[in-house]
Amino acid sequence: MKSARNWCLVLTAMLLLTMGAFADQKHKAGFTLAEPAQVGSAQLQPGDYKAEWTGDGPNVQVQIMKGSKTLATVPAQLIQQKETVANTDVVLKPGDNGAKTIDQIDFANKSLKLGSASSGM
After folding, report:
1. Are 88 and 102 in contact (CB under 8 A)?
2. What is the pTM of this model?
3. DSSP string spanning 66-90?
4. pLDDT digit string (tens) for 27-46?
5. DSSP codes joined into one string, 18-72
6. Residue 55 φ/ψ region, left for φ over 0, alpha for ψ in the -120 to 50 degree band, beta for the rest
């Protein structure tokens, strides 16, 4: 009886550990914003930020963070780059009232195209 209980505990532990391997991985990458820009409903000032997303795409939800505080959550499309870029690049586009918005963030081997989770790029 005691060995059957131990056997069940071992099987349960193995099952829980295996399930963790199939969970979506959380990814994060830092970027520096050189000028004020809008992302979602948040106005970001120049400085260092972090983008976090779960999964390998193509459609993801990206959290833009400063330290441990989430400033905005926006849909994005994760694009794998064919060539590795040396530096992180933030692509801005004109927005409403002359304000700039973050269109894309290019990391070493992937890009996040913000606001386009359902586009067919």
Report:
1. no
2. 0.73
3. ETTEEEEEEEEEEEE-SS--SS-EE
4. 999 999 999 999 988 999 99
5. HHHHHSPPEEEEEEEESS-EEETTEEEPSEEEEEEEESS-SEEEEEEEETTEEEE
6. left
Dihedral, CA of residue 101, residue 102, residue 104 and residue 109, to nearest 10:
170
**pLDDT at residue 104 tops 70:** yes
Cα angle 80, 117, 26 (rounded to 5 degrees) comes to 60
Q: Give the C-alpha separation, 21 to 24, whole Å.
A: 8
Look over the chain and give the mean of its residue pLDDT values, rounded to a whole number.
83
Q: Residue type for 22, please?
A: F
Instruction: Give the pair of three-digit tokens for residue 46.
Output: 């120049």
- Looking at the predicted structure, is the pLDDT value of residue 121 above 50? no
